[in-house]
């Protein structure tokens, strides 16, 4: 891995209680950055915090409950950040989910709300909570974890694909809005990554959740965290705008070679 050591002050990752977010917390912390880890499952966050604090890095870890579907919860999180951790340099908007895999007619309003509230409104709201301060300080790097589903649309993936297409548009527009500043915006589009994502998607049905990863050497959450850390650690004049990463035997959401 070719990574410059780059000393940021604070890294804030939503959805850090598992998968890609947890891996991001690990790699940034290992490299000497203070990390703020957010999610709804505070027990998992506290366990991750303990493990990080027992590692060699002396950087700080701050774990806090935050539900990105709730404006109140986001405001509460921002207010409660300790003063020494308020200046966020790296924001990783990672919290997200898919629910089921059904044609539009079979999707409940509740599923539509949960996916849009988390993947779309969550990214918008968390960004608007930290961006004014980044603009004031003329520094910062925002990562929005989208998906290849935001570009490679598939049947029975309408709400999830649409939510990630919205994230792609948002990343592009924010980058344009801050073009006169030193703030960088990177849109991250992973393919199949083996995490809890599929278990959540299929309502805890572990057997069904294994299917998307069968017969393919899928990406790991560490692979995506490595991509993100790479982009964050480029020299200040380099802005990696988009990272699309797939497993070697995946070419789109639907073109996958399985053995
Ligand atoms: N896995 C894949 O194949 C894949 C591919 C492309 C893109 N992605 C994207 O990558 C991101 C991370 O997913 P993952 O694969 O790492 O899945 P994961 O292991 O299920 O992690 C999802 C994270 O999001 C958090 N989260 C969900 N709803 C939340 C809410 N309302 N408020 C705060 N946090 C919330 C979860 O924490 P709590 O449950 O503790 O709140 C968890 O930490 C998502 O945006 C996903 O769409 C995943």
List key phrases describing it.
259 residues, alpha/beta, Rossmann fold, 7 strands, 14% strand, globular, disordered N terminus, binds NADP nicotinamide-adenine-dinucleotide phosphate
Can you put this structure into words, describing what you see?
Belongs to the short-chain dehydrogenases/reductases (SDR) family. InterPro entries: NAD(P)-bd_dom_sf, Sc_DH/Rdtase_CS, SDR_fam. It holds the Pfam family adh_short. Keywords: Oxidoreductase. This protein is of the alpha/beta class. It has a single domain, classed as Rossmann fold, CATH 3.40.50. 41% of the residues lie in helices and 14% in strands. It is built from 8 helices and 7 strands; from the N terminus they run βαβαβαβαβαβαααβ. β2, α2 (42-53) and β3 (61-65) form a beta-alpha-beta unit. α3 packs parallel to α4 (109-137) and α4 (109-137) runs parallel beside α5 (158-177). It binds NADP nicotinamide-adenine-dinucleotide phosphate. NADP nicotinamide-adenine-dinucleotide phosphate (NAP) is lined by residues 14-21, 39-41, 44, 66-69, 94-97, 118, 145, 147, 190, 192-193, 195-197, 200, 221.
Whole-Å distance between the termini?
Answer: 28 Å
Helix content: 40-55%
> What ranges have pLDDT less than 50 throughout 5 or more consecutive residues?
1-8
- Mean pLDDT over all positions: 94
Spatial order of the strands in the main sheet?
3-2-1-4-5-6-7
Rounded Rg: 18 Å
CATH topology description: Rossmann fold
- Tell me the number of structural domains: 1
Strand count, sense and barrel status of the largest sheet are:
7 strands, parallel
Number of helices: 8
**What molecules are bound to this protein?**
NADP nicotinamide-adenine-dinucleotide phosphate
Strand portion: 5-15%
- By DSSP, the count of extended strands is 7
CATH top level is Alpha Beta
Order of helices and strands: EHEHEHEHEHEHHHE
The shape is globular
> What class do helices, strands and sheet pairing give?
alpha/beta
Q: What do we call the CATH homologous superfamily?
A: NAD(P)-binding Rossmann-like Domain
CATH architecture: 3-Layer(aba) Sandwich
Organism: Heterostelium pallidum (strain ATCC 26659 / Pp 5 / PN500)
Protein name: Short-chain dehydrogenase/reductase family protein
Pfam families: adh_short
Family: Belongs to the short-chain dehydrogenases/reductases (SDR) family.
């Amino acid at each position: 891995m070719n990574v410059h050591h780059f000393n940021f002050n604070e890294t804030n990752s939503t959805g850090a209680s598992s998968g890609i977010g947890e891996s991001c917390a690990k790699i940034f912390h290992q490299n000497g950055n203070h990390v703020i880890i957010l999610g709804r499952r505070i027990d998992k966050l506290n366990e991750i915090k303990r493990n990080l604090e027992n590692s060699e890095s002396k950087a700080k870890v701050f774990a806090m409950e935050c539900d990105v579907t709730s404006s109140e919860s986001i405001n509460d999180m921002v207010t409660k950040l300790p003063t020494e951790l308020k200046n966020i340099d790296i924001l990783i908007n990672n919290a997200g989910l898919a629910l089921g895999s059904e044609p539009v007619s079979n999707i409940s309003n509740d599923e539509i709300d949960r996916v849009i509230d988390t993947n779309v409104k969550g990214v918008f709201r968390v960004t608007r909570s930290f961006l004014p301060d980044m603009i004031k300080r003329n520094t910062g790097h925002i990562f929005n974890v989208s998906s290849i589903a935001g570009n490679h649309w598939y049947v029975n993936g309408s709400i999830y694909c649409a939510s990630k297409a919205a994230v792609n548009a948002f990343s592009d527009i924010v980058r344009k809005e801050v073009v006169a500043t030193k703030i960088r915006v990177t849109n991250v589009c992973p393919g199949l990554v083996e995490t809890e994502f599929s278990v959540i998607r299929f309502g805890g049905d572990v057997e069904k959740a294994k299917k998307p990863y069968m017969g393919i050497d899928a990406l790991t959450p560490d692979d995506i965290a490595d991509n993100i850390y790479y982009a964050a650690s480029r020299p200040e004049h380099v802005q990696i705008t988009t990272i699309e990463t797939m497993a070697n035997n995946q070419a789109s959401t639907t073109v996958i070679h399985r053995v």
